[in-house]
Amino acid sequence: MSPVAQTDSVTQTDSVTATDISVKPNGGLALDPTAPLLEVRDLKVDFRTRYGVAHAVNGVSFHVRPGETLAILGESGCGKSVTAQAVMGIIDSPPGFVTGGEVRFRGVDLLKLPEEERRRVRANHIAMIFQDALSALNPVFTVGFQLGELFRKHRGATRAEARKRAIELLDMVRIPAAAQRVHDFPHQFSGGMRQRVMIAMSLALDPDVLIADEPTTALDVTVQAQIMKLLADLQAERNMGLILITHDMGVVADVADRISVMYAGRIVEEAPVHDIYANPAHPYTKALLESIPRLDQKGQELNVIRGLPPNLANIPPGCSFNPRCRYAQDVCRKDPPPPQFTVDVGRTSACHFWKDVIGRG
Amino acid sequence: MGRYVIRRLLQFIPTVFFTMFLLHYLTSVAIQFTGNPVRALFGDRRPPQHVLDQFTRALGLDDPCLEQKLNPCFGIFGDRLTNIFLHFDFGTDLRFRPVTDIVADALPYTVRLALIALAFDAVIGLLAGLLAGLRGGSFWDYLVKISTVLVISVPTFVLGLMAQQFGGVNLSNWMREQAWIPELISRGIFTTSYKPDYPWASLVVPGLVLGALNLATTARLTRTSIQENIRADYVRTAKAKGLAQKRVVGVHTLRNSLIPVVTNLGIDMGVLMGGAVVTEGIFNIPGLGRAILSGILRGEAPVLIGIVTLLVLVYLFANLLVDVLYAVLDPRIRYD
Amino acid sequence: MTDPMMSTLPTTETGGGVVPGAAGPGAAGAEERKERSASLWADAWRDLRKNVVFLISCFIILVIGSMALFPKLWTSQDPQACHPRYSKLPPSWEHPFGYSVTGCDYYAQAIHGARPSLTIAILATIGILLVGGTLGILAGFYGGWLDAIISRITDIFFSLPFLLGAIVFLSLLKPNEPAAQVASITGVLIVLGWVTIARITRGSVIATRALDYVQAARALGASNARLMFRHILPNAVAPAIVVATIALGSFVSAEATITFIGVGLRAPAVSWGTMIATHQQYINSDPWLLAFPGGLLVATVLAFILAGDALRDALDPRLR
Asked: Which of B155, C110, C146, C287 is spaced 20 to 30 A from B103 at the CA atom?
């Protein structure tokens, strides 16, 4: 399937016939081709449960450019998946509520769009893949059906056209015997193949941004490498923006251009990938890097970050990392939480003492 | 899929065989422990021995194995099997009327009753379960939760008696005084017993009583199933694909949610069979249930064994169909 | 059959992979949680204590149980002291349920009637737990040909519709004395009812057996018996306990139905089933004759089922 030219038309192209399913409908979205591809500003998401309100996302900002890979790194429960789902607009509401911020796609704030239009942005412009392909794919429908329905529902394709496209998609993600396998069910594929199917499904309509939520966590190491390479290749082909959400620092090092480190619902550091590994500017990032076991430290005790991440319904005042931080001072323990300090061009850190952190690096 | 069906068919045959044997063994043991049922049917009268023997022989109960406790009586079993599968003979009652005739006469009524019960079960049960499942925590959800528990807790015969009284007597009397209510409803539907004038209408209330337990079960199962599936990962994926909510629920969620409900249909049939005995008894419907009741009343063991054997075969076959249907709905099963 | 058991079974047949002692989420509470016991049953008990429905159900069960065990606490009248003169007299202060058709004190009958119903239900439930539980555990734990045989046997017994089978066997047995009637009803209920417990137990043993902590225990050299009793049993048993509680209600209902049809308890035995069966024709003229035993019956069944439901929700680790 040849990628359609990636120009976002400002108005709907009515010279296109209804059967041309390669062309994306804009549905009247006033997209601005000069605006940043995807820009999230100060996003806030709360979960209201009967045990209290959990502030899952507390003012997160990041951006992605075409062809660029941004990695959002953080441990389980830090709010990275919720952030991604908020961008897609698929948070279960209740109990989740987006309580603030902007998600600007080519200048258009998606949070302010009515659901109908927001729906059209999904899969067409911004797509998402998930961690466990076995549970993320519907077990009772064939892979061909699940791929094809994107074309049938979004582009008005017929079943025959949809099936053709589905086979092409399977080919694109390098699944052998695509024409036969299109009739198979998800449980008939291996883990790696299933993830490829998910990738195919997400790229079916040529989105401009792909969000990959822990795409390789459930896979074997060797398969991981294949999948990441596939993603990288496809991204390069389409000049697509890729947001990679993960907790695995090893995966990130190979693939990402920039990293945003997330902790307790906030971005604590953002930097190009080499800078972060060489010289972290936030105590949390630094502690994470130090906790990676190294062969040349054999026989020594593992470095751990003492303490535990905070209960999101009960985030400590000031910097949320302060109870576990060895650089913490009084200012860290009091509100307001630290702002984003500019460390360098394209580098920020939410630590009052980032200079000390870097200095000792 | 084809291989799965063949495998199920191959499993079906020994299952039928062994189930027949189990039924036969349990009933033989019961006879071995309680003595010749023929004697019981004469009540207080004491017929001469040769009459007893004649009856006993004619009904195939003269095998000496029936005098020994716990003897599996393979001989009788073999005879019974050949009778059933080669001659389609399920035995006779004590007046030598073939069970197959009794069943043929009674069957239409029970079938009609069962169809009405199943209709209530499927339609109301599914709808209620859907409503409750899709709107978790809402008024509908609580209503369905509470009403289903109540229905399940009331034994069918209590429900039947109440329905017969309130529907067939109280409500019917009141309705008959209202000129605007048609006879079909005031006499046909709200009646205390089966009326040949209203072959379908007079079975509506008994059908509802019979189907009530299954209805409640189906509603609960559907509700739970939908609630589980709504939170499933593949639903999140479907939403991420930009599909409309109607499609996410109506196509993706529903298909998965229906699987446990459909597989429950087999058990539903068994419940219907037992419940029919009670319901037909209360509402005086001349169906299989009432045939069983008269068999009990008259102590006619062979009739009971014959009818129940037939019903068990039907039940086994129904379960086979349900298994195949299950595989149609859930592709993961086909490749086990 | 009135089969509330089937309707309220856990939806996953494998018993839901019960996991014990999973540490709670939101770890800042972890310090507090360390002090509280982290076992499945302890957590469940904590939830149940606060569940109003469960508490009310338990209360009802206790009340009915005391009626069965200590009828003299509830009534001083003798249910057998009947005078035809008093036939069907309506309720009054000294006789809150009035009189039966044969002139016996209806309230006393109702109180004494609790015993046979409950006895049968409890004995039958213990029976199915023993038979079904044992077979299920053996099948789930050892697997292989033992599992294959037990599973086939289970399938075959499953092919007999419950109420139908009960009716046929009891009509053939037709015992005459109350004690024999109780025994045969209990026996038939066990023979037909053990399969549900067996399936549930087998499924949950299989699920528990595969869990890491059991493998760990085995790696540390635990014997099969020790594995079974100390590690697998406490958790695998949870779904079975839920089903058993619901089965109790189910059996009370079944006994009443069987008696109503005429193959269960018969005079001179008195149970709620016999009371309803005897007085069914008076439903129009003296509805209270049916309302009282019927109400007690429904209340009892309802209590067991609600308790079982509450237990199931409390024991479900997924709802933590």
From this structure: B155
Q: DSSP state, B190?
A: S
Enumerate residues 256 to 295 of chain C having a beta carbon within 8 A of any beta carbon in chain B. Answer: 256-257, 260-263, 276, 280, 283-284, 287, 290, 294
Most confident of A220-229, B83-92, C72-81: A220-229
- Per-residue pLDDT of C157-191, as tens digits, reads 988 999 988 988 888 887 778 888 899 999 999 99
Half-sphere exposure of A181 (CA within 13 A, CB side): 21
- How big is chain A by its Cα radius of gyration, in Å? 21
**Burial B202-227, CB ≥16 within 10 A → b, else e:** bbbbbbbbbbbbbbbbbbbbbbbbbb
Residue A4 reports pLDDT greater than 70: no
List, as ranges, residues 233-252 from B with C-beta within 8 Å of A: 233-234, 236-244, 247, 252
Question: DSSP readout, A204-240?
Answer: TT--SEEEEESTTTTS-HHHHHHHHHHHHHHHHHHT-
d(CA C20, CA A93): 31
Task: Please indicate whether residue B81 or residue C30 has the higher confidence score (pLDDT).
Answer: B81
B5-14, B135-144, B311-320: least confidently modelled range? B135-144
What's the CA dihedral at B128, B133, B137, B138 to 10 degrees? -40
Contacts of C262 in chain B (CB under 8 A): 293, 296-297
CB distance B331–A139 less than 8 Å? yes
C27:A308 CB<8 A = yes
Any A CB within 8 A of B48 CB: no
The verdict on a CB contact (< 8 Å) between C156 and B319 is no
**Which residue has 């044997």 as its token pair?**
B21
Q: Chain B: list its partners (3+ Cβ pairs within 8 Å).
A: A, C
pLDDT, average across residues C65-86: 81
The chain-wide mean pLDDT, for chain A, equals 85
Residue B279 and residue B117: Cα distance in Å, rounded? 11
Mean pLDDT, residues A189-217:
91
Phi, psi angle pair for A123, to nearest 5°: 70, -35
Contacts of C136 (CB under 8 A, 6+ apart): C150, C197, C198, C199, C200, C201, C202, C203, C205, C240
Chain C partners of A309 at a C-beta cutoff of 8 Å?
A: 27
Chain-chain contact of C287 with B312 (C-beta, under 8 angstroms): no
For C258, which residue in chain B has the nearest alpha carbon?
B278
Taking residues A297-304, report their average pLDDT.
Answer: 78
The answer to whether the peptide bond before residue B98 is cis (omega within 30 degrees of 0) is: no
Residue C228 pLDDT level (bands cut at 50, 70, 90): low
Inspect the interface and report whether the beta carbons of B216 and C283 lie closer than 8 Å.
no
Nearest to B10 by CA among B87, B2, B262: B2
The average pLDDT across C102-126 equals 89
Residue B259 CB coordination number (10 Å): 19
Backbone phi, psi, residue A101, to 5°: 100, 180
Backbone angles phi, psi at A40, to 5 degrees: -105, 130
- Give, for B215, the enclosing helix (H) or strand (E): helix B204-230
Mean pLDDT of chain C: 80
Q: What is the DSSP letter of A309?
A: P
Helix (H) or strand (E) holding A148: helix A143-154
* Rounded CA Rg of chain B: 24
pLDDT digits (tens, 9 = 90+) for C206-221: 888 777 777 777 777 7
CB C231 within 8 A of CB C209: no
Provide, as residue numbers in chain B, all residues whose Cβ is less than 8 Å from the Cβ of A150.
241-242
Contact partners, residue B187, CB within 8 Å, separation at least 6: B172, B176, B195, B198
Q: What are phi and psi of A263, to 5 degrees?
A: -145, 130
